[in-house]
Amino acid sequence: MQTMPKSTPAPVIHSPVAALVCLMAACCAALCIDNVSRADEVLSTPGFEEAEGKFETRLHSQPFATYAYHDAEISRPYFANIRLPNGIQVTRNHPPAAGDAQDHARLHPGLWLAFGDISGHDYWRLRAPVEHVRFVEPPVMDGDRFRFAVENRYLPEDAEHEICREICRYEFALHGQGILVRWDSTFQSDDQDFYFGDQEEMGLGVRLATPIAVNSSLGGHILNSHGQRNEKEAWGQAAEWCDYGGTVNGRFVGVQFMPHPGNSRECWFHTRDYGFVAATLFGRRAFGAGERSQIFLRNGQPFSLRYGAHLRWNDRTQDFNPAAIYQR
């Protein structure tokens, strides 16, 4: 992954920042995607069929995930029902099925990026909408990667004007016993200044399958790069990576979040034993890490957030080595 160009103006951050050290390798083996639906603007792309606000991806003829970009119930994009190549679902069913924890059904659909405060507007709790504008790049295979890019615009509650726009690029590739997701979002407004506020409900979030949750009593655990475990120790802690894993159908599966070193500051992890974790650059005061710290962007100034997420499985728990995945 590339870091921000040196010519890019730095955002105004009202507190000290820290850099992360992380290397993420290029991935091998292609994702086999078929029967993928897409938006009107990519109707001419072979192999894609029209659908209403979402498309399905398939890996080796097996369902992989749903990407939703128009949803009457959830006013921001998300990935739902993500499955590993071995067929095990790593995120909670969306909508929650019988036997699933039923909390946060609309707020926690699977894997998503959202913010509780952009210039005072709340996109995390769905009080203000994120509108899909277009596919900047249609879903395609590119060598060993499946990728696509979208443009979104962030609107206030009344949707009468625009706060900012986002170009979001996604890449997926097989990576050992798992799938590496690269998530790269750049925010900018050419009309006004805007800011990212300071609260914990900000950043890249995932809701794990119910058996993986710590409180399921089925062996689920949270572990970060400092060896801190579960919500009691890992909540609000800055770390190089944070993994949430557990046993499903005899396999040790989970999601490892790895913030990119090009981000403007270190990430804290908002972790919960009920099966949720988010990686966030925001919420300094909420996590007890210092005074309130907003990030202000001037008119025309870009701001990037980059993450890696490794969706993985291991046949034996002793083969699980998140530090090695991070270094690779």
Description:
The protein is mainly beta and 328 residues long. It has a domain at 115-327. 3% of the residues lie in helices and 40% in strands. It is built from two helices and 21 strands. The strands form four sheets. Strands 4-5-6-7-13-19-18-15 form an eight-stranded antiparallel beta sheet. Strand 16 and strand 17 (251-259) form a beta hairpin. The longest helix is centred in the last third of the chain and has 6 residues, at 322-327. Residues 1-8 and 13-50 have low confidence and may be disordered.
In terms of quaternary structure, the protein is single chain
Q: What is the CA–CA distance across the termini?
A: 13 Å
Query: Helix count?
Result: 2
**What is the 3D shape?**
globular
Largest sheet: 8 strands, antiparallel
H-E string: EEEEEEEEEEEEEEHEEEEEEEH
Radius of gyration: 19 Å
Strand order of the largest sheet: 4-5-6-7-13-19-18-15
Total number of beta strands: 21
What's the rounded overall pLDDT mean?
Answer: 85
Q: Structural class of the helix and strand makeup?
A: mainly beta
Helix content: under 10%
Strand content: 35-45%
